[in-house]
Amino acid sequence: MAIDPAQPQAQSNQQDIEQIQQLLNQFQHNLPLSSTPYADMASQLGTDEASLLSLLKTLQDEQIISRIGAVFRANRVGVSTLAAMAVPKDRLEQVAEIISSYPAVNHNYEREHHFNLWFVLTAQDSEQLQSILENMQQKTGIVILSLPMEEDYHIDLGFPLQLISNNLQGGEKND
Amino acid sequence: MIDERKLIAELQKGLPLTSHPYAEIAERIKSTETEVLEHITLMQSRGDIKRMGIVVRHRKLGYTANAMVVWDIPDNMVDELGHCFGQFDFVTLSYRRPRHLPDWPYNLFCMIHGQDREDVLNNLQLLITSCNVEHVQHSVLFSKRCFKQRGAYYVYKDRQKESVSCN
Fold first, then answer.
1. What is the DSSP string of chain A?
2. Candidate from B92, B98, B151 with C-beta closest to A150
3. pTM, whole model, 2 decimals?
4. What separation in angstroms does the CA of A118 have from each of A40, A84, A149, A164, B140?
5. Among A31, A19, A46, A16, residue whose Cα is nearest residue A158
6. Which among B17, B154, B166 is the nearest to A78, CB-wise?
7. How far apart are CA A139 and CA A133, in angstroms?
8. pLDDT tens-digit profile of B67-86?
9. CA of B29, closest CA in chain A: separation in Å?
10. In angstroms, how far is the first alpha carbon of chain A from the final one?
11. Cβ B55–A66 below 8 Å, yes or no?
């Protein structure tokens, strides 16, 4: 029987994918709070610390993981708001660029609606937030709708495994 | 005393990929590993930290479509429906926000993800049926262009370098 050189490669890819699934499934929350969290995670995953660190580094380089850290509840640390503007179509790029240039803005999206520019603004306190909003309105001449979160109904456990597993094999996504 | 703001900034940047990441953070903010770990536990118990873990990028996993779906819900039903929306796998946030009449009548926002537009709309239909909101006025705001996206910096230095990117 001829040796198929593709076979071992395919097998190891499958193992890698299973390991990544397991990693993401278990540790999008409940990161160990110990002196050696990566070693503890590795032992739970049946691998060693060095291999896990190198896998995490790869996933970070490939931008599948943005970071390993804390997700803070909105408005618990500092203040934030979701802001919307109805920007005339021919000014959208120019206004979006102005808004993105503020360090306090972390998301800025065009959406399909009369209110077509949506961004999230964070600041240390509500006075600072208010003064940034006023400054933006002055610079752009467009009224801003500020819609701060009042109640959070979603329990964040990370992105669910079955959604992730369907897509790990999809290769490079470019958007 | 630990400097909470400095700790938050480090936890938002992300843990270093080294054997003793909490000790490394402690060194950066002139604290101790024990203090750092205790303070993270405290912020978790206060609910300031929702989770500690790996933060993935949906888009890189093929979930490139998303719609913010906004609803005009009677005030006495908003808690119940907010919880109902928040339980779905494909929903990544479910928030009550103020109305701004007359321009903006919507008081409940949820973010629905999917692999494409159709997938998002199918998920929305499932949510509508499951939570019995067939007759509630709502609007679907698909995302088009991303002008900027990064983690929130609640603590930032005056002249921090701004990277404008979308994943």
1. ----THHHHHHHHHHHHHHHHHHHHHHSS----SS-HHHHHHHHHTS-HHHHHHHHHHHHHTTSEEEEEEEEPTTTSSEEEEEEE---GGGHHHHHHHHHTSTTEEEEEEESSSS-EEEEEEESSHHHHHHHHHHHHHHH----EEE---EE------S-HHHHHTTGGG-----
2. B98
3. 0.74
4. 41, 5, 14, 27, 14
5. A31
6. B154
7. 10
8. 999 999 999 999 999 999 99
9. 16
10. 44
11. yes
Tell me if B150 and A106 make a contact (CB, 8 A cut-off).
Answer: yes
Rounded Cα distance between B50 and A67, Å, is: 15
Q: Do A69 and B52 touch (CB under 8 A)?
A: yes
pLDDT for the residue A73: 80
Which residue, among B52, B45, B46, has the nearest Cα to B10 in the 3D structure?
B52
In this prediction the ipTM stands at 0.76
- φ, ψ of residue B109 to 5 degrees: the values are -120, 130
The alpha-carbon radius of gyration of chain A (Å, integer) is 22
Residue type at position A3: I
pLDDT, chain A, mean: 84
Query: Which member of A35, A57, A175 has the closest CB to residue B59?
Result: A175
Phi, psi at residue A42, to the nearest 5°? -55, -45
